[in-house]
User: Fold these one by one.
Assistant:
Number 1:
Amino acid sequence: MPDLDFLPPFGYSHGWRDIVNDVSFDVDERRPDAQRSVVWESTDTIALTLGQSIQVQAKASDPFRDAITPVAGTDIIYSGTGIPQTTISRRSGQSTVITIIAVGGTVTITRLQLRARAVPVARTVKVSAADSVSVQRHGQRSNPDDAPWAGQHDAAAIAQLLLAHYAQRRPTVQLRLVSSDHEHLLQILTRTISDMVTISHGELGLSADFHIESIEHTIARMPSEGEALTDCGPRVHYATFGCERTGLVVPQNPFTFDVAGAGFDDGVFDPAAADNPEHVFIFDHPVQGQFDFGRFGT
């Protein structure tokens, strides 16, 4: 953070433990059944008086499509002088709410089911990617997380993003800013997650760009000399930033409309590191909203 001072403690990690150079996901591929079947059922007894209603949540083991409203006598086994009137909250997903109203008299339900086209797992595909250079240099370091809602191609894209970001170490730091003046307080209040800042530390020989990954605000009493901690003294607002060094290189020739040498086949789109709020394209902005001035970021 240029021209601003941070206070100790200053935490620094080389980033060795965060290296990921081998990524593997097991991706479930689902196919909807051609015919409807019972995707959920209950044998609980439900007793309703005239005009009484109840909501039952039907949660299936697999996602489903094209659910139909339960039909009295087929999906609802009941007795009594009345008739159960039903509606469902939605027809696709993994759960739906069945609303039942007793019409014309009392109703006692002994069986309730929901029919729909189930979407079970047809097969499981393993998606893998590795960075051989990083594996040779640092040993195999696998990603511990899953991608439960991703398809095959989405999982492959996630794997490539992880390798691009973590195949080489990314140092992380923790620093503390104290609201000692207006400039420091402004940084504490306006900085958000993913902002890019420049951090310099003379003793470590560090001067590089970092992305903010976590922010913790604290307001504490700072007693003056000779004052007890229990006395009501002035309060100081400080923030602890957790930051990770960026590994993206900002291109020297970003794509710009109507500029010779920076168009198609010449200019390149900026990566995430180039999302500088001072230059990114903003609609209705007097300068950054013009072609040749504002740049398209990510």
Number 2:
Amino acid sequence: MSPEVFVEILREAMLVVIMLVTAVILPGLIIGLVVAVFQAATSINEQTMSFLPRLVVTLLAVSWLGSWLVQKMMDFFFEIVYRIPMAVG
């Protein structure tokens, strides 16, 4: 039961989390940037104009990528369960 095994599992867990969060956050970030540029160009300072498109795009990203997100989490979980005997023994 070497520490390297646990460090490797932690590293892979962090990579999976970063990949999943990026897939959901990145579209909202891009839309937020587009709306911010539009607001700066037109001097419109409406808060809902900034919030609502990001919310809609984030919800669409979750609905479109939901099965992929769950599949990635399941694959990682099965990999962890598969590694339990190697980590213990």
